[in-house]
Sequence to fold (183 residues):
Amino acid sequence: MKATEVPAIAGAYLFEPTPHADERGFFCRTFDADAVRSVGLDPGAFVQDSLSRSVRGVLRGLHLRSGAGEAKLVRCSYGKVFDVVVDLRPDSPTYLGRAFFELSGETQATLYIPAGCAHGFQALTETADTSYRIDRPHDPAEDVTIAFDDPELAIPWPLPVTSMSQRDREAPSLAEVLKHKEG
Fold:
């Protein structure tokens, strides 16, 4: 498994496994504690695994956690998604940096997103399963959402949005979220 730094987001990594395909399908290691350790992360820090299933055009995000934040490993286990990370850590050298990825069930690449970064994705296939490995138990009181179409972020979502949660539809702008964080 190869680990590559994400230049636009300090502390983010893309872990790329080597799927082994044959006439039966494929086999792939999707998590490797040694690969995670090799970039200075603690593989034992992850406490929760979650899975979302989305249909083509569904947009989820942009989400992050307040307080201590939440680091996560994200992988599209089936289908394909357009994945977005925005660095919202004021002390980061890549503050307000954005990075875009196409994650797919074919590659099984995993993206490590540091705490303090917003994350979102859009399903590009009829079915897209996205797996998350999170370093803190979920607390809904700490959920923060930023408008997916904020002009300051200018994220190039590849498809028209077919569906999103009410929370995502009503999300405040990046400026409003940052103002609230400072206050």
In short: The first strand starts at residue 2 and ends at 5. The first helix runs from residue 33 to 38. The radius of gyration is 16 Å.
